Amino acid sequence: MEVGIRQGVKANLTQVSQKQLNDLSEDTLSAIDDLVPAGDALVPLGNWGEIPVSDVVVKIVHRVSSRTFLGNDGPRNTQWLDLAQTYTPDISLAGFILDLVPPLLRPLAQWCIPAMHRGRRQLATARGLVAAMIDERRRRQEVQPVSSDGGEKKQVVGSDDAIGWFDRAAGGDARLYDAAAAQLALTFVADHTSANFIAKALLDLARHPEVVRELRREIEREVSGLGWAGWEKANLHRMKLLDSVIKESMRLQPIFFASMLGAVTQEMSLKDGTVLPVGTRIAVSGDGNRDPEVYDKPDEWDGYRYYKMRQGGEREDMAQLACATTEHAGFGVGKHSCPGRFYAADFMKIILCHLLMRYDWKVSEAGPETVVMGWTQMVHPEAKILLRRRS
To answer: Alpha-carbon distance 132 to 201, whole Å?
Structure first.
């Protein structure tokens, strides 16, 4: 199934297409109207209100991404959206607890972890939901004929969403992959990571209103005269300051302290003479994000850092948000880099455009901002931020 997921994502989830840009923009506005309690009876227009930033942003991201992953019915499938909201935290907690247990005891220990039981129930529910979606598409004849290796004619879902991608990657053979697990894997690796980076960028920008003002000028310059329904990919890609802000927030608070986990399959020696025997677990440290030889004042947030790099010079290429380098491994490096990073970069910029133009943002002192679990760090579920609807 893993090969099918990478194939499906790499072949289809690259940059946002023009149609997807319009759909994602429309879905973002709809999600904000429904999910952000500002400008309504809860928080009257012009007043400051406090929201749990991670919770609200995750819900927006699930709503918006569900069209790409599940098709046009995704944003309205409340049962799936509720499931997507809870699955990743539960399965992450279960994995963290299991990692503390000696390997020999894990087959028994798994039955004592409540989060593991919830994850199994969620997977069972997801299988029912996704199977119903696939059956409905076959009933509506949204399929395409393909030939299997044995010459047998099979029918694959022809829709341009993740359901169709995975089915085509498997040649229409449902035995080769788990459609529901594939969708939950996308939710795990895409939605919560994107939501975390959006929430972190908002928290950083709340401390830097001067950068927000410049961002709005940049957005207005690109959208002015076009409106949200008329802007194009080129407008989005010219928002270099917004690109820089997201990348800088990712640099200072990546999700993983170390990434690209692996294991040594044959004994190897490093340049300094260190010998790694077979079975050694290895990972790439995230210290490069704060390397003083690469970054000036590496421990300070500078929203213009990558914007300045893109004004010319030898590091201009590495300054783009979707660029994966050893100096900024937020999306991995080389063959281990995220295959959907170009889409994710556009996706995050679309949502931030609307949030920045719709609301003013201010720091709230209530609660911690970050939670650390193992070698991961995320925006704390209880982190708060103040917002006010702009007139």
So the answer is: 37
**Total domain count for the chain?**
1
Q: Which domain holds residue 251?
A: 2-389
Give the residue with greater pLDDT, 229 vs 80: 80
pTM to 2 decimal places? 0.89
- Residue 3: what pLDDT? 46
Distance CA(384)–CA(372), nearest Å, equals 17
pLDDT digit string (tens) for 134-193?
A: 888 877 765 555 555 555 555 556 677 888 888 887 777 777 889 999 999 989 888 999
Any binding-site annotation on 112?
A: no
For the chain, the distance separating the N- and C-terminal CA atoms, rounded to the nearest angstrom, is: 49
Secondary structure string (H, E, C) spanning the chain: CHHHHHHHHHHHCCCCCHHHHHHHHHHHHHHHHHHCCCCCCCCCCCCCEEEEHHHHHHHHHHHHHHHHHHCCCHHHCHHHHHHHHHHHHHHHHHHHHHHCCCHHHHHHHHHHCHHHHHHHHHHHHHHHHHHHHHHHHHHCCCEEEEECCCCCEEEEECCCCHHHHHHHHCCCCHHHCCHHHHHHHHHHHHHHHHHHHHHHHHHHHHCCHHHHHHHHHHHHHHHCCCCCCCCCHHHHHCCHHHHHHHHHHHHHCCCECEEEEEECCCCEECCCCCEECCCCEEEEEHHHHHCCCCCCCCCCCCCCHHHHHCCCCCCCHHHCCCCCECCECCCCCHHHCCCCHHHHHHHHHHHHHHHHHHEEEEECCCCCCEEEECCEEEECCCCEEEEEECC
We report the CATH number of the domain holding residue 322 as: 1.10.630.10
